[in-house]
């Protein structure tokens, strides 16, 4: 069983930046960030493969968010720039034993979530 702990959420203004971090208690293959806004389904934000050499993003965040991982510290980070009010959500770190993807069912472990609120 892998435990994931997120940190770095908060309240910012539109146009600001924020960096989320997630620490894993054990080795994982794929890692990703998802988010869930009130009344909406959880959606994919960004993912990274085991080596960190392949990253992929939702169209809504491409060019603004950057995902990265450190396999020594077993962490994954999400640098969020040019934040918009529509980025407001609870952000979840996810990790999987397989190749990952853009769907929630492709991940085996989840963090507790961290709130990101962007004011206009």
Brief summary:
The protein is mainly beta. It has strands spanning 4-7, 10-13, 18-24, 30-36, 43-48, 55-57, 65-70, 75-80, 89-96, 109-110, 114-119. The strands form 2 sheets. Strands 2, 4, 5, 6, 9, 10 and 11 form a 7-stranded mixed sheet that branches.
What's the rounded overall pLDDT mean? 95
- Record field, number of beta strands: 11
Share of residues in helices:
under 10%
Output the structural class.
Answer: mainly beta
Rg calc: 13 Å
Provide the succession of SSEs. Answer: EEEEEEEEEEE
Low-pLDDT regions = none
Shape: globular
Distance between the termini: 40 Å
Largest sheet entry:
7 strands, mixed
In what range is the share of β-strand residues?
Answer: over 45%
Q: How many distinct helices?
A: 0
Write the layout of secondary structure elements.
Layout: E1 4-7, E2 10-13, E3 18-24, E4 30-36, E5 43-48, E6 55-57, E7 65-70, E8 75-80, E9 89-96, E10 109-110, E11 114-119
Parallel strand pairs: 2-11
Antiparallel strand pairs: 1-3, 3-8, 4-5, 4-9, 5-6, 7-8, 9-10, 9-11
